[in-house]
Every structure is written in C-alpha cells, then in structure tokens.
Amino acid sequence: MPNRKFADGEVVMGRWPGSVLYYEVQVTRYDDVAHLYTVKYKDGTELALKESDIRSQSSFKHRKSQSSSSSPSRRSSSRSRSRSPGRPAKGRRRSASQSRERKDDKKKTIQETSLALPVLLWFLCKPSENNTKRYNGEPESTEKNDTSCIILEQKLKPDLEVKHVLEQYSLRSRKDEKKKEEIYSEKIFATVKTIEKASSKTKELEFGGRIGTFMLIFFLPATVFYLLLMCKQDDPSLMNFPPLPALESLWETRVFGIFLLWFLLQVLFSLLPIGKVVEGLPLSTGKKLQYRINGLYAFIFTAAAIGILLYFQFELHYLYDHFMQFAVSAAVFSLALSIYLYIRSLKAPEEELAPGGNSGYFIYDFFMGHELNPRIGSFDLKYFCELRPGLIGWVVINLAMLLAEMKIHNLSMPSLSMILVNSFQLLYVVDALWNEEAVLTTMDITHDGFGFMLAFGDLVWVPFVYSLQAFYLVGHPTVISWPVAAAITVVNCIGYYIFRSANSQKNNFRRNPADPKLANLQFIATATGKGLLITGWWGFVRHPNYLGDIIMALAWSLPCGFNHILPYFYVIYFICLLVHREARDEHHCKQKYGLAWERYCQRVPYRIFPYIY
C-alpha cells in the first residue's frame, strides 16, 4: 500500500476541480483503494481529490514571500530612471510631483483593472454555497462552474497578454487608456453574461425529451376521454373498447360558457383581500414573491354558492349528463392557456425562466413550462391553478355524481360506497386548502414552469380523472357492508395520518429547524446548510408522504369493488407518477447534497415501500 502524503485533519491547499485556483481545505479521510483524499472546504463542501491536486500551505507561503521581496527593487529602479537632472530644481520638483501624481493614478487604474478578472474568476469558481445552487434552490452540478471558468479563461487569455505588455510599455495617452479600460470591462461582463445565460439552459430532459413530450400532448387528453367513455359503458372491461362519439356531440357552447364562468368565479374569490399574505422561497435573484393564502375561504364561498343553486332547484347532475363536454371544454381552455403562457414567456427575462423548461426546444419548453412564475400584476397564474379551479372543482363534480346516483337509481340517500368516496376525497381537498402555504415549497412551484403539463394537469386531469371512482359508481353501483366500510375507512385514515404527519415534519423542519418541538429529530448536516432528517417518518422511508398518498388512493378505489380494474386506474397511475417523482427527487438531491445524500441513503435504504422499494 503506498504511503499517504497528508494525514487526516491536516490543513492543506486543495485545487478546485476544473480550475487553477487553490483553497484552504482540511483532509477528512483517505481511500486506500481509489487513492483519493476526501477534503472539506471552509463552506462545508466535501470533494474527493487526487494527491497531485493537493499542496502544503508552506509552498504557497514561500512563493508569496519571494514575490513580495522582489517588488521594492523594481519600484526604486523605476523611480531612478524617471529623474531629469538637466532641469532646474524648481521645475524638477514640480515635474517630479506631477509625475508622481500621474504614476499614482496610473498605478491605481492598473490595480483596479488587474483585480477585475481574478475577482471575477474567483466568484465563478469558488466552492461556496451560492455556486452549488441552481435557480430556486435546486442543485447545479459543479461541472457547469468548471466549464464556465475554463471558457472565461480561454476567452480572456489573449486580452490578458496584451494588457500586460501595455502595462510594461506605457505608449498610450491617458484618454486612450480610459477608453481601453471601459471596453475591456464591458467585454469581461458581456462574456460572463453569455456564460451565465448558457449555463441556465436545461441540460437534462424529462419524459423522453422532445419526442416524449410531443406524444404526451396528445396522449394525456386521449387517456382522459378513453377513461370517461369506458365508465359510460355497461361492461367497462379493458378488452371492450368504447365506440367513438360524433365530434359535434363533444362540444357545446353553453357548457364552455359554464366552465369559463366557473374559472372566473374562482379568480374573483382568490383576489378577495382576505387571508394572510406570505412569502415564497427565494428566487435565483434573491427576491421572494408574495402569495395570499385564502384557498379555504374560496372553498367556503364556493360551497355557499352551490348551496344557493340547490336551494333554487338547480339540477347539479347536469354535470353528469354533460361530463364529456365539460372535459373537452376544460381541455380546450387549458390548451389556449398554455399557448398564451408560452408566447408571454418569450419576452420574460432570463432569470424568470423555469430551470426545468429552458431547453431551447419549442415542444419541450411548451410542455414543461418556459416561465417559472407567470403573473398578471400580483395575480400568480400557476399558484392559482394549482389549488383552486381544479381541486375545488373535483369536490363539486363528486357532489354532482352523488346527486346523479340518487336520481338515476331513485334513492332516498346515496349509497354507502358513494358516501365513502365523497368523504375521503373531501378530506383530502380540505387538507390541501388548510395547509395551502405548504404548496409553496413543492417542486411544482419552485422548479417547474407553468406550461401545458401543469395547465392540463390542474384543469383537466385532477377534476376529471381524480373523480373517476364517483363517476364509475353512478353507472355501476356497488353494495358494501358496514364492516367492510369500516375496514376501508381505517385504511384511508392510516394513509392520511402518514401523509399529513410526514409533510408536517418536513415543512416545520424547513421553516424553522431550531424549533424546540423538533428537538427529538436527528438529521445529517449538508454543505448547503440544510439538514436531512433521519428520524421520524423520514428515517423510515425516504418519501413517506408518497407512501401515504398511495394508501389513500387504494382506499378511494376499494368502495368500487373488484368487478373491473377501471376504478383502480387511479392507484396504478398514482404509483407510476410517484415513482417518477421519486426518481427525479433522488437525482436532484444527489446533485444538491453530494456525500451527505449518500450517507442518508445508507441510513434510510427504502425509497417508498418499506422492505420492498
């Protein structure tokens, strides 16, 4: 085994990968197999370096002393050459004074110009927390910083050589020097701006990239319409493909008008000056957007409006009779909204674009969302659609299905299965609105842009697919006993408890890790200053909130019985969705937290399902 040169705990100078800059680091351990030193920078960043990338501090101090000892002689010789013995004493004194002033000004200018580039390179290459974060707190790989530094050094190297020559031989007038300095400074910052713009582009594409997102734009609406047509059939088996309706039967102007009225009504409720105003997470610029938390008030006002309509004998089962037309209207509206969002994003500043939807490819950015937080004044379009028209509309649709079941089957009260489905999903929606502030920390708000994916998901997929069980029970009534209903209720309560307690732990820890109520929770410190919980629900599995979601989705489907798999589509979809999200979260966390995330994964090996996955 080769001898190691540096011992654990020794303070040395480590080269930052991809650059020629060295920083003070501390050796933490040595890998005998890979022959790599794990070092820790002052900001907490840990990296594995080769022995050739590490130097002792004494070598740097020796160079510094040599450099400082040689400079006085050069300055004295320069002063001796500047004298003019042939001039009168008075003139010589005036000339010497003016010469010293000019030299001081020139020296100051050269120092300022000389310092500009090293400071700039240090800012781009330094291993600090700011340079290990991407827009909205998401991680950015260190390769991006390294590439930026190399590009900047290559682009400015010729200018540096010319500048050093001109400093040695002062052949220009002061006016020319100032002009050159301005041009040089502009070139530096223009280069930096170009590099930053290039580095903000989305490099890793999701959902199969351009081809995958193009297909999803058509596949998602087709899936919704297929599911709704299947529920209308007497035998909704997968092998029994439903007949396609006439195109003219899918559109009704009155239905579209009702949907538009519903959307505007929710906009009105969200603009009411009630509820507290909170700040979101910091953006890439450090700015924090403000959000009004009044979703629960909007739900109460909506419930009052629905109660008034029912009091005046409005037939709410109209939704059931024209369910397909409402789905088409919502899809058309979401497509129009997506087109508007993409067009307006073309004029948005670079810092306001979404890190996940800035690839430069039209289809991909259109699907993922090009702009992060599109707003009309203080009205945030993405935040509004996330919880209001679709989520509250889901509850209204469930109620319409309950009334339709009673009318079609001549029931004096709804079936027990329909009551369970309505109750479970009502609890889920009310919980989301009660904890509305927590949505500000989700990836939908902090990372994803507002494009077709979220617009269609919020306005079409949530209200029309999540209500699939209630829609199915209208045409396929299922009778369950009270003991079975009690067992299903227990399953839903277990899922809800895991979901809510896990999310509460995470949100409270993010807001205030020093809260005395969280003193019993243990965590792993990371280089970003945040901690990874290793006790409580987050020490059980890595994504306990996803586990609770899946258990609740199963409880929503069980009241529909086991005659057909169609009501369980939501469970299958939910598992696929959460596995995709979990994989995305794993990738981002690995980039963001580095070695700390690897230690966390060793401590918590299971992702969603304990002892399984």
From TrEMBL:
<dbReference type="InterPro" id="IPR002999">
    <property type="entry name" value="Tudor"/>
</dbReference>
<dbReference type="Pfam" id="PF09465">
    <property type="entry name" value="LBR_tudor"/>
</dbReference>
<comment type="similarity">
    <text>Belongs to the ERG4/ERG24 family.</text>
</comment>
<dbReference type="InterPro" id="IPR019023">
    <property type="entry name" value="Lamin-B_rcpt_of_tudor"/>
</dbReference>
<keyword id="KW-0560">Oxidoreductase</keyword>
<keyword id="KW-0443">Lipid metabolism</keyword>
<protein>
    <recommendedName>
        <fullName>Delta(14)-sterol reductase LBR</fullName>
        <ecNumber>1.3.1.70</ecNumber>
    </recommendedName>
</protein>
<feature type="transmembrane region" description="Helical">
    <location>
        <begin position="255"/>
        <end position="274"/>
    </location>
</feature>
<keyword id="KW-0752">Steroid biosynthesis</keyword>
<keyword id="KW-0256">Endoplasmic reticulum</keyword>
<feature type="transmembrane region" description="Helical">
    <location>
        <begin position="520"/>
        <end position="541"/>
    </location>
</feature>
<keyword id="KW-0675">Receptor</keyword>
<keyword id="KW-0539">Nucleus</keyword>
<keyword id="KW-0444">Lipid biosynthesis</keyword>
<dbReference type="GO" id="GO:0003677">
    <property type="term" value="F:DNA binding"/>
</dbReference>
<keyword id="KW-0753">Steroid metabolism</keyword>
<keyword id="KW-0472">Membrane</keyword>
<dbReference type="InterPro" id="IPR001171">
    <property type="entry name" value="ERG24_DHCR-like"/>
</dbReference>
<feature type="compositionally biased region" description="Basic residues">
    <location>
        <begin position="76"/>
        <end position="95"/>
    </location>
</feature>
<feature type="transmembrane region" description="Helical">
    <location>
        <begin position="454"/>
        <end position="474"/>
    </location>
</feature>
<keyword id="KW-0756">Sterol biosynthesis</keyword>
<dbReference type="GO" id="GO:0005789">
    <property type="term" value="C:endoplasmic reticulum membrane"/>
</dbReference>
<dbReference type="GO" id="GO:0005637">
    <property type="term" value="C:nuclear inner membrane"/>
</dbReference>
<keyword id="KW-0238">DNA-binding</keyword>
<feature type="transmembrane region" description="Helical">
    <location>
        <begin position="207"/>
        <end position="229"/>
    </location>
</feature>
<comment type="pathway">
    <text>Steroid biosynthesis; cholesterol biosynthesis.</text>
</comment>
<keyword id="KW-0963">Cytoplasm</keyword>
<keyword id="KW-1207">Sterol metabolism</keyword>
<keyword id="KW-0153">Cholesterol metabolism</keyword>
<feature type="transmembrane region" description="Helical">
    <location>
        <begin position="295"/>
        <end position="314"/>
    </location>
</feature>
<dbReference type="GO" id="GO:0006695">
    <property type="term" value="P:cholesterol biosynthetic process"/>
</dbReference>
<keyword id="KW-0152">Cholesterol biosynthesis</keyword>
<keyword id="KW-0597">Phosphoprotein</keyword>
<dbReference type="GO" id="GO:0050613">
    <property type="term" value="F:Delta14-sterol reductase activity"/>
</dbReference>
<keyword id="KW-0812">Transmembrane</keyword>
<dbReference type="Pfam" id="PF01222">
    <property type="entry name" value="ERG4_ERG24"/>
</dbReference>
<dbReference type="InterPro" id="IPR018083">
    <property type="entry name" value="Sterol_reductase_CS"/>
</dbReference>
<feature type="transmembrane region" description="Helical">
    <location>
        <begin position="326"/>
        <end position="343"/>
    </location>
</feature>
<feature type="domain" description="Tudor">
    <location>
        <begin position="4"/>
        <end position="62"/>
    </location>
</feature>
<keyword id="KW-1133">Transmembrane helix</keyword>
<feature type="transmembrane region" description="Helical">
    <location>
        <begin position="561"/>
        <end position="580"/>
    </location>
</feature>
<feature type="transmembrane region" description="Helical">
    <location>
        <begin position="480"/>
        <end position="499"/>
    </location>
</feature>
